Structures are given as structure tokens and as C-alpha cells.
Amino acid sequence: MGQDYATLRVPASTSNLGAGFDTFGLALNLYNYFTAQPWDRWEFEIVGEGQELPQNEENLFARVYLKACELFSQKPIPLKVKMKNHIPTARGLGSSATAIVSAIKLWEHFYQRTLSLEERLRIAFEFEPHPDNLLPAFLGGFLVCAVGERVHYQRLDFPEELKVVVCIPDFELSTKKAREVLRQEVSLKDAVYNIQRASLLVVSLCKRDYQGLREAVKDRLHQPYRKSLIPNFDKVLESAYSEGALAVFLSGAGPTIASFCLEGEDKVGNAMVYAFQEAGISAKYLSLKVDKEGAIFTTTPASGG
Ligand SMILES: Nc1ncnc2c1ncn2[C@@H]1O[C@H](COP(=O)(O)OP(=O)(O)OP(=O)(O)O)[C@@H](O)[C@H]1O
Ligand SMILES: N[C@@H](CCO)C(=O)O
């Protein structure tokens, strides 16, 4: 066992960004903190979001850590874990990815191993088989991911001037449920529609040319099906655009809705909150920026924003 106490800070992420279903992920400066130390039994303390999460070996963090022990034939040593969560769970902001990433990195820390990204993803995929929240949580930044025999990815600079306003409604939507409504087969026309827009999004962000962003986040693979699970979805999008948002899309599997803005974040955020309220759903908004660091060890024990 390595050093007996460590804290990891892991960022939230928004994924898909409209047309880039299971492909694009963007790390955000909203964080969960995981402090752990070897202990004689599993013990959890959860502060902030996710108080309802299991506080035993059924917690996703423990399941991932134990999977790493199994895969690398190590005797499982229980941990005392303190989670300070700022990311709401089951809202499409990659909370589960933070638990998976922190469990793997803390496992590496305590077992004094450095895994390759491929080995890390091999463990992570047992729990979340798409990389678009996992890679931003590991690495930070804007990621374009492609899964084949191995995971290919490119990390791009995300324009500093773009703010990400996320409107978080006050209800949970599990990724499982939000994937169950999707079609397993899509038409060639819809596939082409998404390829065109996903490509346009990458080039627009690389060139800092935002005129096509609104078109670039349109999608026919997941949002049209998922919006039935999100009251007033179209109205929330419309209201953000009417206040000057450049692009508005479902964050991950939802129900959070995200906007890119150059200015007027409060107006955009309030308009989205109001549109949810019209459907009887309370909501809050946060104006966030890209996180460029990904998961990092920190000396600040389980605190901060
Ligand atoms: N911070 C966390 N710590 C431990 N377990 C978590 C945490 N967040 C989520 N989980 C577990 O992961 C399961 C799956 O979460 P789910 O993927 O539905 O939501 P999410 O990760 O919050 O959002 P996203 O849609 O972005 O993945 C939850 O039921 C919960 O048990
Ligand atoms: N790309 C995934 C993200 C959720 O974790 C989805 O949309 O289902």
C-alpha cells in the first residue's frame, strides 16, 4: 500500500453536444472530491449531492475499486471514503464518471501502480461503456472519442470565451432509462444529418467561428426520443436561444440542458429555469467554464467548488 491518505478532484462533464452522440465530451469546472484512506472495513461519508447513494460496497466507487483489485489480482483492502459532491446525480453531468475515475486513480495510488489509459478504460467500461463522460473526467478539456478495438481520442482546446450555462431540473433521469427510449436502427438520412452537424461543430469550435453552432448541435439520434422524458424541452431550448444563446442541447442523457453563450449567461439561465417552471418543474442554472485539468490529486481535503 502507498501513502495512506489522498484526495482526488474530478470534474463534471457535458456530453454528446447535440449531434455527437457517445462521441463528444466537455469537462466543466464543477467538481466532486473523493478523500480515501485504507481502513479495516468499507466506510462512506457523503457530503452535498448524492446523499442517497449506497454507503457500503454497493457504492459505484467501491465496485470499481474492487473490480480493479480483481483484474490485477490484488488483495482487496477496504477504504474509508469521504465524498464531497457538487455534481447532482443522474442529471447528465457525468457524476457516475467521477466515481469511476476517482476509484481507478485512487486504486492506482494505494496499490502504487500506474495504469495506461487503455487499462483504465478497460475497468471503467465494465461500468459505463461509453467514453464521452469518462475521458473528460480523466483528462479535462474537449474530447472527441471513437471506440473500436481500442479507444481513439483527440483532445481539443475549447474556446475560453464560451461559457456553458447548464440548467438542472429538479428530477433525476437515469442514463439507463434515457438509453432505453432510443432506436437501435436509424435511417441513412438521419445518420448523414448527424455526421454533417457533428463535423460542423468540431470545425466551428476549432476556428472560433460560431455562426453555424446552432445548426451544429441539431440531432436526430437521441434528443428527439429523449425529449418525451423532459417536460417543456423545446420551450427551454427556444427560451435560451431567444436570450442570445449560441447553441442549446441536452447535456449527456439529460435531463440537464446546456447552452453555449458568449455573454448574457444570467438571462439565458433564468429563461431556461422559467421555461421548466412553466411545466411545473423547479430548476436551477449554473454558469460554468471548461475544466482543462481533469482528475487531479489535491491537498484540499474534500472541499471547494
Ligand atoms: N458521485 C457518485 N458516487 C457514487 N456513485 C454514483 C455517483 N454518481 C452516480 N453514481 C451511481 O451511478 C449510477 C448511474 O448514474 P447515471 O449514469 O444514471 O447518472 P449520472 O452519472 O449522474 O449522470 P450521467 O447521465 O451524466 O451519467 C447511479 O445510480 C449511482 O448509483
Ligand atoms: N453519451 C451518453 C452519455 C450518458 O452518460 C448518452 O447520451 O447516453
From TrEMBL:
GO molecular function annotation: ATP binding; homoserine kinase activity
EC number, as in UniProt: 2.7.1.39
List the residue ranges forming a coiled coil, or say none: none
Q: Can you state which reaction this protein catalyses? A: L-homoserine + ATP = O-phospho-L-homoserine + ADP + H(+)
What class does this enzyme belong to in the EC scheme? transferase
Q: Name one Pfam family in it.
A: GHMP_kinases_N
Domain GHMP kinase C-terminal per the UniProt entry, residue ranges: 202-272
> Any idea which positions bind ATP?
88-98
Which parts of the sequence belong to the GHMP kinase N-terminal domain? Answer: 60-141
Q: Where in the cell is it found?
A: Cytoplasm
Taxonomically, the superkingdom here is: Bacteria
Keyword Nucleotide-binding part of the UniProt annotation: yes
Q: Which GO terms describe its biological process?
A: threonine biosynthetic process
**Main subcellular localisation:** cytoplasm
Q: Which GO terms describe its cellular component?
A: cytoplasm
Q: In which pathway does it act?
A: Amino-acid biosynthesis; L-threonine biosynthesis; L-threonine from L-aspartate: step 4/5
Q: What keyword terms does UniProt attach to this protein? A: Amino-acid biosynthesis, ATP-binding, Cytoplasm, Kinase, Nucleotide-binding, Threonine biosynthesis, Transferase
Tell me the function of this protein.
Answer: Catalyzes the ATP-dependent phosphorylation of L-homoserine to L-homoserine phosphate.
Family designation? Belongs to the GHMP kinase family. Homoserine kinase subfamily.
Supply the name of the protein: Homoserine kinase
Upper classification of the source organism reads: Bacteria, Pseudomonadati, Aquificota, Aquificia, Aquificales
